[in-house]
Amino acid sequence: MSILQSTNKRALRKAITTTLRELSQSDIQSQSQAIAEKVLSLPAFQQCKTVSCYLSMPAAEVQTTSLILNILGDLGKTLFVPSITSSDGYMNFVRVYTEEDYRSFPSGLWGIPEPTPEWSSKKRQSSASKFRAKSSCRLIVAQVFDADCNNLDLILVPGVAFDQSLSRLGHGKGYYDRFITSYSSSTGRSKPLLVALALEQQLLEHGQVPMFDHDWKMDMIITPDKVITAPQA
């Protein structure tokens, strides 16, 4: 990645974040509700069994509480949410069992609810675990995916900005890109459908979001009035 490319990402992230912070809470809630209705009506969402949904910040992004409660109320679906428990750059997905479970999460960094390690005195089911090993005098942290955990069918993805060509600009930590790469390369697992949720102010024109080799494009972007998908070949 060149210095110029990195600078372009940082500048775009800063500009969009400034715009999002100026949005009223009522505007964000209104847009979020319209987006939730579109997600719930998607055939791909209705047919999937195992869903991951991010836990939203109190402001500046699509709110996901109504989506989470809907998923938890659907007996045919299992919900996983992101969990970052250390500073080693790895994100896991852990299961949420009930509405009571979800509402018991304490508020963490940036006001985002944080799943507890246990629910009902039992360790949460997770999509992966970490192991540490040495190779050529170097410490490697890797993920091992839980064979007892159902494959993730669909991931509802957050971001700072997206464009019409399905590119995504995240918060700069690389959590989602690393997880998707590891998950998709593990034996016997297919890539989940990547569905981004975007406020109107987060959607840019084609090619405006810089992309690099390790960045994953979305399969779909949902805004309050659009469902953007890749053109059929």
TrEMBL record:
Annotated EC: 6.3.3.2
InterPro entries reported for this sequence: FTHF_cligase (IPR002698), FTHF_cligase-like_sf (IPR024185), NagB/RpiA_transferase-like (IPR037171)
Entry keywords, A to Z: ATP-binding, Nucleotide-binding
List of residues binding substrate: 55, 61
GO cellular component term of the entry, any: mitochondrion
Record has ATP-binding as a keyword: yes
GO biological process terms, semicolon-separated: folic acid-containing compound biosynthetic process; tetrahydrofolate interconversion
GO molecular-function term, one example from the UniProt record: ATP binding
UniProt: ATP binding residues: 9-13, 168-176
Pfam hit, one: 5-FTHF_cyc-lig
Reaction(s) catalysed (UniProt annotation): (6S)-5-formyl-5,6,7,8-tetrahydrofolate + ATP = (6R)-5,10-methenyltetrahydrofolate + ADP + phosphate
Family: Belongs to the 5-formyltetrahydrofolate cyclo-ligase family.
Protein name: 5-formyltetrahydrofolate cyclo-ligase
Record organism: Suillus placidus
The organism's taxonomic lineage, starting at the top: Eukaryota, Fungi, Dikarya, Basidiomycota, Agaricomycotina
